């Protein structure tokens, strides 16, 4: 009887391989690995303004040119409807603002509704030039905004080429104020196309906080070596 009792042995306790490997892995993990695992994930590219896009000086330059073009266009519209005389522009000779602005080529549209070209200039800078050339638009994440900027300056420079042909060939006179708008549109075209060629349609680099969509603090910090 005693022999039978002694022959009974307690079943051997087998350690679970998964549990033991987990314990070993937890014990062998280094403090550096635990620090990396607890670190917050890096922000996605869409959560901050790109740092490889057009520089901030280019954004301000196009914005200032657009504001200047809007001011000149408003003055031309004011002269057309109110004073009918341009300041500092003679009424005789090659440079003759009055001859240009009162010619048939200075109007667009059907004969029943002739819209002065100056009004088109105001509409261009109000709805396309100033909004799309502002730093906020340059730093926008939406690709459609950057495409619209390219399309607007392309249409603008095409219309400017027609106006230059009308002044030099058809009318035979030059308007200083009209020419200033032509130069502004040409500069906007060159800067916008150059930015697209150099940096693509990526958002512009951030500037001062009050002129940026996001502050520099939102940019990802460089990883530690």
Please provide a written account of the structure.
With 225 residues, the protein is mostly helical. It has a domain at 62-107 and 118-202: de novo design (two linked rop proteins). The chain contains nine helices and two strands; from the N terminus they run H-H-H-H-H-E-E-H-H-H-H. The protein has helices at residues 2-7, 17-28, 31-38, 56-83, 97-101, 117-133, 135-138, 143-171, 176-199; strands at residues 107-108, 115-116. It has a two-stranded antiparallel sheet with strand order 1-2. Strand 1 and strand 2 form a beta hairpin. Helix 4 runs antiparallel to helix 6 (117-133). Residues 1-7, 15-29, 35-40, 42-50 and 215-225 have low confidence and may be disordered.
Q: What is the radius of gyration computed over CA atoms, rounded to a whole number of angstroms?
A: 34 Å
CATH architecture group name of one domain: Up-down Bundle
Strand order of the largest sheet: 1-2
Q: Which regions have little confidence, pLDDT < 50, spanning 5+ residues? A: 1-7, 15-29, 35-40, 42-50, 215-225
Shape: elongated
Determine the strand fraction and express it as a percent band. under 5%
The percentage helix is 55-70%
CATH fold-level label of one domain: de novo design (two linked rop proteins)
CATH class of one domain: Mainly Alpha
Average pLDDT metric: 79
Which class best fits the helix and strand makeup? mainly alpha
Give me the count of strands: 2
The CATH homologous superfamily of one domain corresponds to: VKOR domain
Q: Could you spell the SSE succession in H and E letters?
A: HHHHHEEHHHH
Number of helical segments?
A: 9
**Largest β-sheet summary:** 2 strands, antiparallel
Give the termini distance in whole angstroms.
Answer: 72 Å
